Amino acid sequence: MTKYAIECRNLTKTFGAFTAVDNLNLRVRKGEIFGFIGPNGAGKTTAIRMICGVLSPSTGTAIIDGIDVVKNPEEVKQRIGYMAQNFILYGDLTTHENLDFYGTIYGLSQSQRKQRIKQLLELVKLQDFENYLANELSGGMRNRLSLANALLHEPKILILDEPTAGIDPPLRRTFWQFFRELNAKGTTILVTTHYLDEAKHCDRLGLISNGNLIAEGSPTEIVRKVYNGDLVQVTVRESEQGLRNILVDIDEIKEILFFRDIEPRGCQTHFVVENADSDLPKIQKLLYGKKIDVLTAGKVSISMEDAFIKLMAEGS
Amino acid sequence: MIIIQPAMMMILFGIAFGGEITHLPIVISNADSDNNLGWYVTQKFEESEVTDVVEYVNGFENARSLVEKGRVKGAIHIPSTFSETLQESKAANIIVIVDGSLPQIAQIITAEAERISAELSEEFSKKFAVTTSIAVTSESVRISTFKIQLYGTTKNIDAFAPGVMGLVVQMITTIFTAVSLVREKESGSIEMIIVSPIHKADFIVGKFVTYMLVALAVICNVLIVGIGFFGLSIRGSILDVFLISILFAIVCLGLGMLVSTISKNQLQAVQATIIFFLPSILFSGFFFPIEAFPRNISWIPYLVPLTYYINGCRGIMTKGKSLGYIYSDLLALALFAVLTLILSIQRFVKKLE
Hints:
- The complex is a heterodimer.
- Chain A is an alpha/beta fold.
- Chain A contains 10 helices and 15 strands.
- Chain B is built from 12 helices and 5 strands.
- In chain B, strand 1, helix 2 and strand 2 form a beta-alpha-beta unit.
- The chains are: A alpha/beta, B alpha/beta.
């Protein structure tokens, strides 16, 4: 038996001249939470749809739990739980009817369905909305219903396409709690998100940009891999252009990541230096010499966001 | 599509309704025993544009049964005493047998027979005047037609009801099926169906059964209104009417499935349905007898499922026949049903595009 729950082999999808997923080789190990991260339009959903057997790959294939999705899509479908980005259950059926309908399709007996639906509705806290039409539910409730639906047949592999998109932070936290609980019980989870702060919940990450996998590894691995040095944050009372002109001439600065405006009139920047402890005082002195009012200066722990922006820039 | 459709409609109307009704198939049974005056009658029908004599048969009963079976649209019987009575009393009958379930056709054939009778009366009058020396008194010959209309007289509602039922069933089931599937594409719910392990045949049959029930309710409605308000007569078994309607509904459901596979949104689905719908109205014999089509397009009605439904329904409702009588229509519909079902299951791919 392979140790991978999901293994994409040169997975490619083209729509006319546009290549949505380009030669993707992604491996999700059994029992991990794998975060599939990338900006909108990077090809996450297309890749996931191919993995689920909803879209046919142009070339390449994916092996899910040892089964080739191109050769045997129906077999794969029985093994995965899928939660799509949009709400794709029936809006004119009630919460219970939707779950009962798909429960039947997944081959659960009537008593199994009854028990499972009760259990899942309690899990996602929808027990009071059992007889509401899905269309009458709020966006967050519909997401919870979709999750319950994906869990109906107790799949070994859960594939979640932006499960937390457009829902409020408390619910996002609850969702990640669900995921960790499920994962603790042995469910492999492939989850996409563009909330980078969610990446820290994942065991491993895959960063995708323009249909290509640009980095893969645990969150700390990815962050460490990104910069060969320390990241420094400096806030000054100066325009972005003014600060930029000065910073580009400083040799100690290996790389400037970004500038952002600070109200009322100021600017914040992140840049990389070899060693923050020795280089930062020199840079501060230099700025002071240029009559620039430095508000804050200090080493920052590298965020996923920084790492991501850096990797994106390198990838394109 | 929006621009082309009206033009297409006009062209179809022009082709279908442009001509007159001609070349109706009839049989002649010439029982005239002596003197061959009956031969003149057969010649007139042979020459007629309106009728095509496809066969000569022996005896009134044979002729009648061919009309009854629907093989020909009418029959002419020349009685054995035709020449005799004509020469003796200067008056004779020809018998026209027509199908009352097709009132338009019956009327056209009867009118043609009357025209021929009048023409022959005149010709025979002149002829007798020459051959008989004493005929200077010019006593004229009179040939009358005697019409036998099978299934009695029919009301307009009886002639139109099968067509209306067929159209309503086709319209509702085709549009409902097509739109219900396309709506799943639009709302995205098809993605969940695709990602679930449901067998696609199960999914399609599920749709079929649902809209079949709708179709049955529609048929009930049409029948209740027809019988209750307009005195529609059903001479055969009402169960047979349901049976052929179910068969026809299956064909339409299949058609709806096919439409849904080529349509991206609901508007397209409705438009595509109308494209299937128009030829059905025009070429099924609903308004206009299919016999009336010009020769070069006379095969089109046989490609339209509604043709067989209307014909079969007329057999049951107007003629009061059993299923055995309309077996060919049932067979054709079954063929269409199997074809559309197989095609739609094949065309329905459990994938997103």
